[in-house]
Automatic annotation (TrEMBL):
CDD domains: SgaA_N_like. It comes from Streptomyces anatolicus. Residues 1-20 are annotated as: Disordered. This is VOC family protein. The lineage of its organism: Bacteria, Bacillati, Actinomycetota, Actinomycetes, Kitasatosporales. InterPro entries: Anthracycline_SecMetBiosynth, Glyas_Bleomycin-R_OHBP_Dase, Glyoxalase_6, VOC_core.
């Protein structure tokens, strides 16, 4: 994941400052309790917050050492949607990409809408139901830092089998793939211009029945065991305890409202 961390934050070479299409450029969470959620992540990652666009309701941007890394919004009262971190994949034309999503069997749940002067966005799901965002950057280019403690480090689609969904993402975003050659490990790295930017992991019957296919966001931490203890102290839950994985030392946790994410100390920081 070291190369991916470095590449995930690269902008294009055309002078626009935008991430190359298909690159995860932002992560966002919609929660019921905005203030309590800010307290949790502020204590866990050292984030501070400032207001962001409110087209979908109250919304703040999380800052790490003054640099924007993620967004947190508040769900409208009475809306009982799954609480989950959502990666936003860069596009140069949110409307055209949304139409391609529909044409390829996906669904557009929100938008495309304009988020003030920040950019244009949509919320989509692939044919298996995994939710992701589209982001056409204007003034807001996305996460200003990746791969440092407290910042996003990686995004991975957890699905039943990669073969059933990779044609969708290839058609929508133009990804090329690199497979891990293994008889019992269904894993693909998604590449943009030859650089790994995200991955797909087919887990078969191990897919959580209460979640279905979903995108998983990894956040870098300095110490996984310490982060897991902190999550528990702050009212969160440990979903999978610390373990050694292909990306480094990892643990899967959930915040007090149930949003699941992975903390990682990547090999590059070991």
């Amino acid at each position: 994941m070291t190369e991916a961390q470095a590449s995930a934050g690269r902008r294009d070479g055309a002078g626009t400052g935008r991430s190359a299409p298909g690159t995860p450029c932002w992560v966002s969470l919609m929660a019921h309790g905005l203030a309590a959620t800010q307290e949790f992540y502020g204590a866990l990652f050292g984030w501070e917050f400032r207001p962001g666009p409110e087209q979908l309701g109250p919304y703040v941007r999380a800052l790490l050492d003054g640099r924007e890394v993620a967004g947190i919004g508040q769900l409208p009262p009475g809306r009982h949607l799954p609480i989950a971190w959502t990666p936003y994949l860069a596009t140069d034309d949110a409307d055209a990409t949304a139409e391609t999503v529909r044409h390829c069997g996906g669904t557009i749940g929100v938008g495309p809408i304009t988020a003030g002067r920040a950019g244009r966005m949509a919320i989509a799901s692939d044919p298996t139901g995994a939710v992701f965002g589209l982001w056409q950057a204007a003034r807001h280019l996305g996460s200003a830092v990746v791969g440092e403690p407290g910042a996003p480090a990686w995004n991975e689609l957890v699905t039943r089998e990669t073969a059933s969904v990779v044609p969708f993402y290839r058609a929508v975003f133009g990804y090329t793939e690199e497979a891990v050659v293994s008889a019992d490990f269904d894993y693909l790295t998604l590449q943009v211009d030859g650089r790994p930017v995200a991955a797909m992991h087919g887990v078969g019957d191990a897919l959580p029945r209460d979640r279905g296919p979903h995108w998983m966001t990894y956040f870098e931490v300095a110490d996984v065991e310490e982060a897991v203890e902190r999550v528990a102290e702050l009212g969160g839950q440990v979903v999978k305890p610390p373990r050694d994985g292909s990306h480094g030392r990892v643990a899967t946790v959930a915040d007090p409202e149930g949003a699941v994410f992975t903390v990682v100390r990547s090999h590059a920081r070991a």
